Amino acid sequence: MKAIRLGQNLVQLTKYPLVFPMNCYVVREDDGLTLVDSTMSSPVDAIDALVKDLGAELRRVALTHAHGDHVGGVAAVRQRYPGVEVSLGERDTPLLAGDQSLRPGEPQAPVKGFFVKVDWQPDRRLLPGDRVGSLEVVPAPGHTPGHVAFLDVRDRSLIAGDAFQTRAGMAVSGVLRPLFPFPAIATWHKPTALTTAIALRELKPSLLAVGHGPALKDPDRAIGGAIEVARKAFA
Ligand SMILES: [Zn+2]
């Protein structure tokens, strides 16, 4: 996997950077490391290298949403690092077990995207405002019903999962980028994704890190532009 240091406390790991880039992130905390997302298959070799490099243990795995290309690597991580605490948004947890039913009050649109069978359950079901180390859980529905983003309160880095993509062009979840259409095709409800994009911009992130594509420093203008495109595309 390709590793890029994005900040003092943040490393981006990318699987298949040229053909089908899938990112996961390692966040450094005083007590060890948090892995955010896990790609489709095991990221363990890259994590082992970082654990050695940083001289810190892996403590936690925090997941932005239940799609297979974000949770698929968790089984291998749990095997290699027994005792890691795995957390996922409360609302996306049933999707892991194959329950795609919608809740009252939600847009009644079918859940989309690719899911894998897993043999584990999250140890923690995250709610808005919860903390995973320095990461604040921010609701970011739209791509999936229970998608969450993680804001590092130390430096306002935002790990936004698939709420945005930057591969093949910056876009709000649901805006089709023909050269990398998969996040858009997997998006549950576009108007909700747009509302989320606006709310995430309000957080004034210093850095935007996403599931597919490179991270953006000072992303405000790029997010603003992507919101305008989405407004027109979804109108
Ligand atoms: Zn996804």
Compose a concise summary of this entry.
This protein has 7 helices and 15 strands. It is an alpha/beta fold.
Characterise this structure:
The chain is 25% helix and 28% strand. The protein has 7 helices and 15 strands. It has a 7-stranded mixed beta sheet. Strands 8-9-10-11-14-15 form a 6-stranded mixed beta sheet, with no helix packed on it. A two-stranded antiparallel sheet has the order 12-13. A hairpin with a 5-residue loop joins strand 12 and strand 13. Helix 6 runs antiparallel to helix 7. 48% of the residues are buried. Bound molecules: zinc ion. The site of zinc ion has 7 residues, from loops.
**What does the oligomeric state look like here?**
single chain
Bound molecules: zinc ion
Order of helices and strands: EEEEHEHHEHEEEEEEEHHEEH
Shape: globular
What's the story with the biggest beta sheet? 7 strands, mixed
Kindly, what is the distance between the CA atoms of the first and last residues, rounded to a whole number of angstroms?
39 Å
Give the helix proportion (percent range). Answer: 10-25%
Rg measurement, Å: 16 Å
Low-confidence spans: none
Got a strand count?
Answer: 15
Number of helices: 7
Structural class: alpha/beta
